[in-house]
Amino acid sequence: MKITVLASGSKGNCTYVQGDSGALLVDAGLSAKETFRRLEESGCDKDLIEAIIVTHEHRDHIKGVDVLSRKLNIPVIGTQGTLWQFEDKRTSEKKLIYDPVKTGEVKTVGDFEVEAFSTYHDSMDPCGYRIKYGDLTFALCTDTGKTDERIGAYLASADVLVLESNHCPDMLKNGPYPAFLKARIADSKRGHLSNTAAAECIKKYCRDSEKIVLAHLSEENNRPEIALESAQTAAEEILCSAGIAVSHQHCPAETIRLQ
Ligand SMILES: [Zn+2]
Ligand SMILES: [Zn+2]
C-alpha cells in the first residue's frame, strides 16, 4: 500500500491511496490540472484510480471532483448527504456516477474495503474514512471539531493515519480572524481539530500506529513545527513509536509505503 497526501489545507485537500492494481483518491480539492500535475510529480499513476471518495462538500475537498470523475470515468463515493450537496453545487450538465456509502457499512471498491464514519463539521453529512487493503489499514480524519470513542475506534486500527491538526488554540485566539470565524473553527461540534485535540486523540487512540500524518494545518493559525512538536510530545508520552510527519498545502508530502 502506498499513500501520498498530494495537498492538505483550506486551499485544497487530496490524498492518493494505492494498492497493487488499483488506487483511490480521498477528496479532490485541487483543480483537475493541478491534481494530475501533483500525481505525476509524486510518481502516482492516475490510470489506476478507481473512485474518488469525498469527506464532505466544502470546496477545498470537491473543487476537482467533477472534472476528474469525468476525465477518468470513475464514480464519486460519499455519504448521500454529501453527494446531494455536491450535485446541487455543480454547474456541469454532464452526468456523474454516484455511489453513496452509509456510515458504519463496508463498501468494496476494487481491492479496498472502504468504511465511512461521521465527523463533527459544519456540512450536510461529513465523514472520515477507514480503508483496508489486505492486512493494512489506512484512516483519514480531517474537518472535525473533535474525536471521541466512536471515531477513535476507527483510528485505533490504522497503520497509517492522516489526522487533522488545524490550529494552535493560542494563535487562533490572538490571530487576525473575526470573532465569528474564530468561534466557528474552535467549535467542537462543527469546526476543526486543534493541535491540542489532535495530541489528545493520539494519546488515546494511536498507540499502535506506524505513521501519523498531520493534516489541514491552517496557514494563519498554525505552524508546522508547533503542530509537529505537540503531536510528538503526545506520542512520546504513550511510548508510541509512530513516525509523525506534516502534510503541505502547496506541494505533495513524502509518499508512505506499507507492506
Ligand atoms: Zn477542509
Ligand atoms: Zn470543511
Give a description of the structure.
- This protein is α/β, with parallel strands linked by helices.
- 30% of the residues lie in helices and 26% in strands.
- It contains nine helices and 14 strands.
- It has a seven-stranded mixed beta sheet. Strands 7-8-9-10-11-12-13 form a seven-stranded mixed beta sheet, with helices on one face.
- The longest helix is centred in the last third of the chain and has 14 residues, at 224-237.
- The termini are close together.
- One zinc ion binds next to helix 2.
Task: Outline the secondary-structure elements.
Elements: E1 2-7, E2 14-18, E3 23-28, H1 32-41, E4 49-53, H2 59-62, H3 65-72, E5 76-78, H4 80-89, E6 98-100, E7 106-109, E8 112-118, E9 127-133, E10 136-141, H5 149-155, E11 160-164, H6 169-174, H7 179-186, H8 195-205, E12 211-215, H9 224-237, E13 243-246, E14 256-257
Parallel strand pairs: 3-4, 4-5, 5-6, 10-11, 11-12, 12-13
Antiparallel strand pairs: 1-2, 1-14, 2-3, 7-8, 8-9, 9-10
Bound molecules: zinc ion (2 copies).
